[in-house]
Amino acid sequence: MRTVRVLLVDDQELIRQGLRRMLEIEDGIEVVGEASDGEQALRVTGECRPDVALVDARMPRMDGVELIARLSVLHPGVAAIVLSTFDEDDYIFGALRGGAVGYLLKDCTPEQLVDAIHRAGRGETVLASPVAERLVAELRRAPATPSPERDPGRLSSREYEVARMVAAGATNREIAARLLISEGTVRNHVSALLRKFGVRDRTRLALRLHGLPASGKEIIT
To answer: Which pTM does this prediction carry?
Structure first.
């Protein structure tokens, strides 16, 4: 198992110490640094070279949302997970738009946090259930508008079916059951969609796919 290097970013020392003690006993995880705010986190990231940064949303001088946006530019290899007591839309959507790969609440279990760190280290997206529900609700509520971002070109009819279900928040298992295909086939289609839309994870793919035309005639081959 590859060891995931973790940076702890929280303005409360007690929280950082508790997280360090909890994570240090876990196999495959190494806490390589701490920071009490975003500015300090930017300084130490280059020194400790973390794979994953656990970031509090509210901090003095530079909050978690701004930190994540700057990490995405300066240190794109660092997967940022927000770990916060706040589930407000400004923090959730600001962090995800800025480049966060995950958003967890501090009432999650140790097992959930450890699993999220390993998944983020593998490049996966990790969202607390209330956060995922809010994201899906926002996608369904927001009006579909043409996107100025990368043109995906033509999609196959199957890719289009998978894309519509990803946009609705369906899991790979749910898509496989609905379309009567294997989860491996679904993963292949999702990977193809990530490439075509020029995004790196499922959350950003869902945000891009929300603008798909209802009929799909314009983009299906």
So the answer is: 0.64
